[in-house]
Structures are given as structure tokens and as C-alpha cells.
């Protein structure tokens, strides 16, 4: 006998329940590293340290020898710094950043899912699968960064706007956008393109224009107010960004840009985006196609060749997700019409992409894998553990500071320097006077009679550091050590850098070989005696000679002086 309607209904519910259980299991598997995010590099440590300094009213204590760093990291990421300053008295600096990450992730996923549903009418199961299987979405939650809270606020504003573009919502959405832009200035690109299109979809041209203008005015007011509280303006942030780009002197890299898009989406999603675009065209949903495809295209064109990290695409999740969800819907319809070739082809590629060995691993804000998503996730866990180990080594180094004595710490890299500074601030160390040779490239930090003098050998922002390290070491670090007579002197550097300076070391890094090749080595503290200082001096001289050119450490330091009242 053929199955009854009741039996069919029961089997349909059972299949749906099974699919939901599978999706939930996938969510747990792909998102669990987000429960314990870590610092990705010195910039995330700078956000937390600046937030702690701001809560203490001592922003000028952040890299006083190169205050442009406070201008850049404090103003271009002001919203994130403000969040740390507000929350840190209750949960600590990293606790505050963790709250920002978790809230941003929840908003990003929730708002993206709602927008995809609105633009495609896809099932929640398909939407959940799309957001989970975009590698760049989940993986952006594994480490501290400002993209996550900025994307969360921006997409929440967009979801509210799509739900009901009324005057009260325009005010609320504008406020959210203003704060999002204060966290990440590039989110303004999404607001400028998506807000008018979303309003036009639900309101007539004139009403949409009016409501969008109201939201824009509110966003500007909120943005200006946030900067005014920091004794700065949005123009200061833009100026800091322009100066930083000029100092970095990084050429446009179109290949890297294309690879970042591929790593964010994953290979199967590239096919789904193409199929989804065709689906929108066939249905003649031109406005929704303009949203789903036009907004990402516009953002990528504006940033062409200047997309440096995978996480920069996070704010485009609902747009790209809508194309992918539409593509999945097209494949399901093909199966129902007994046209299985395309669906089976995409399914085969997806399975291979998920379960193949991790391959194509690059160090783009973490160990990104081109294929082998499941195996790659294990590398993310190992990478997180490596960062935690770095901080433990730094804490162990700080513990060497003798009572009523001085510990001198030379840092050879940006991460080493900023991680050390953050740990000192967290442990209650505060800035204290130091001799001029020391204050030119570092600072003294004191707590309970113990003093740590940080000496930053690496000149931040400038690509000419191989020519400058030797001058900073010879003209400032060595005279500083002679002036303060430290009880102990150590060098903080990553293991790969130590191999370059002192020769290949016979030490076990303890990392997966693929991970070692895709990221920097672990941070290690090395005691420095006179002989080791001499080797270090010779290594810097040799690097400067190989780099060539005439460069002045003093001129370089002048480039990183204060530009605003914020850091003074």
C-alpha cells in the first residue's frame, strides 16, 4: 500500500529534525574555536592596551616614543577602543574584547541570516549551512579583531532598515552605522551602497531618499560626537589612515586580493555564487541582484588591490550569502526536476573540499586553508594554542624583573613589543621616567618596586626597518643599557627571527610543519649577555648593509610623531 499522508508527514518531520541536528553539530564543530579567541597580531593587542589606557586617562602612555601609533590604532578603530575602555573595569581588557567579539559574531550571524531570508526566501536550513560553510565567516571569530563588532553593528542596522525603514528605525539604524564606522571606517562603503537600495525595495523613491538622508545625518552626528569625546574628528582618523598607508608603502596586490576572496568563500561557494547570480537574472529580481551582487562588487572595486586580510569581507556576508543560497535553491530545483548532473557535481566538490587533507595554507590573519576545511580547523586550534603560549612566555619573562631592580627587554618585532606592553599594563605596570636614550625608542614601566624597560628595536610602519634596526640598537638601545644598568637583559623575538640572528637553532617548535611554514614562529625570551649583544649588533649591521640605501633612524622616528590631540 502507498504511504498515507500522515506517514509522509511524519517522515518529512523526521528528515527535517535530522537535518537540523546535523546543522547544529556542524555549527558546534565549526564555531567552537570562537569561544576562546586570541590575539592575531600587535594591532589587536594595541586595541586592548589603548582601551585600558583610555579608561585610566593615559592614552599618551601608549608608545610615547612613536605616538602616531596611538593616532592610527586609536582613531581608525576608535569604537572598538571605546568598547574596551567602557567594559574593562568590569571584565578586564581582554574580557572586554571577548564581549565585543561574541556580541559582534551573534549580530553578524543573526542579521545576515535574516537578510538572506528576506532577499531569497531560502529555508533557514540552507541559510545556516551557507553561513557555516563560508570559511571567512566562522574563522573571523577565532581571533580578536575590529571587523567582527563593526560588521555586527552594520548588518544589524541594515536588517532593521530592511524590516521597517521608518523614521524611528532611521534614527536607530543611523546611530548603529555611526558607531560601526567609528570601529571600521571602511564599513561606510556598505552603508553608502546598501542603505538606499534596501529602502528603495520597500518604499517609494522620495520616501526612501528622505529616510536614507535621516539615517545618514544621524550616523554623522554620532560619529562626530564619538570623536569629539576623544578630542579628535573623523578627519583625523582619515588622515591617520592615509599617513599609515603612505608609510607602509605597500603596492597594490591584485593577486592577493583575488586569493582573499577565494579563501573567504571557499571553492564550492564560487560555483554557488555564479549559479545564484544566474538565478536572480532568470527571475528578473534586478533590485535584489543589485544588493546581492552589486554591493560586494562595488566594495571590492573601491578596495581593488588593497584587500589585505580575509576578515575584511565579513561585512559582505549577507550579500554573498544571498547569492549562494539562491544557487543552492537552483540546485535543489534541478534535483526535483530530475536534472542531477549540476547538483551532484557541486556536492562532490563540496565533500572533497571539506574532507580532503588541508592544503594551500597561508598566513592571512591565521592559518587559512584553500581546501580541507575540517582538517584546517584543527590547525586553527593549534594556532590559538601557540598564541597563548606566546603570552605565557612573555609573562614568564616579566616575572624575571627583580624587586627594586630593572629588567631590560629588547623587542625585535611589532607583535613581541605590543604583546609585552599589554601584559605589563594588565599586571598593573605604569609608565615611569627613563633616561633620554631609553625614551627615544621605548619606555619604563614600574609596579611594586619592579621596573621593566621596553626597548623597541623595530621601527613600526616603515618597510625600511632592516636599514634602521642597527641604528636604533647602536644609537639608543646600547646607551640606554649603559645608563640604567639592568639586573637582567633579555631579547623577545619569534623563533624564526632568532634563527636569522643567531643561526639555525636546534630547537623543537612543536608546531605542525604546515603551520610553521604558514605563520611566524613562537615568541621566545633569550637572555642577553655582552657576547649575545655583540652578535645582535653584528646581525643588524649585516642586514642594513644588505638592504642598502641611506636611511636615518632619526628621520624615521620623526615620521611617527603625534598628529592630533588624541595622543598628546
Structure description:
It is a single chain. By secondary structure, the protein is α/β, with parallel strands linked by helices. The chain contains 25 helices and ten strands. It has a six-stranded mixed β-sheet with strand order 6-7-8-5-9-10, sandwiched between helices. Strands 1-2 form a two-stranded parallel sheet. Helix 2 packs across helix 5 (93-120), helix 14 (267-283) crosses helix 16 (317-336) and helix 14 (267-283) packs antiparallel against helix 17 (341-355). It starts with a helix and ends in a 10-residue tail after the last helix. 48% of the residues are buried. Mean pLDDT is 89; it is low at 505-509.
SSE diagram, text form:
Layout: H1 5-31, E1 38-39, H2 42-56, H3 68-75, H4 78-91, H5 93-120, H6 124-133, H7 135-139, E2 143-144, H8 147-163, H9 167-183, H10 188-202, H11 205-229, H12 234-248, H13 254-265, H14 267-283, H15 286-302, H16 317-336, H17 341-355, E3 362-363, E4 367-368, H18 373-398, E5 406-411, H19 414-426, E6 430-432, H20 436-439, E7 442-447, E8 450-456, H21 465-484, E9 488-494, H22 495-502, H23 513-518, E10 523-527, H24 530-547, H25 553-558
Parallel strand pairs: 1-2, 5-8, 5-9
Antiparallel strand pairs: 3-4, 6-7, 7-8, 9-10
Helix pairs in contact: 1-6, 2-4, 2-5, 2-19, 3-12, 4-5, 4-9, 5-6, 5-8, 5-16, 6-16, 8-9, 8-10, 9-11, 10-11, 10-15, 14-15, 14-16, 14-17, 15-16, 18-19, 21-24
